[in-house]
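Predict the 3D structure for this chain.
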Amino acid sequence: MKVCATPNTCMACTTSMGGQVEQIEVPDSLTKIMARAPEPQRGFGWNSESWKVALHDCPDVVDQLEELSDEIDRGEVCEVVTAKLAKGSVLPAFVTAMIWGYGTAGYGPARVR
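Done. Predicted structure below.
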């Protein structure tokens, strides 16, 4: 079993008052799973029109929405968000992340608006 390697500085191991939280041992079976490369998540189709209608007055966002695939996945979202943030385009990056976050829920555009 493995315990945290840096319990004195780890945010999960210290309280907001600087005290220590009880260390737990991580089972070997979980340690092995967590050491594996992450499995890619499946993409999903999203309704670009509802997002365009909700954000019609944000041309940079609408341009970004038109560039996204009809079925997006985490990899595409990460690439777009990273590229947009590197260029200082915060709003298109944020909306792209929200599309992923709200998924197929349908109320994403209204909530983000």
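Residues 1-36 form one domain.
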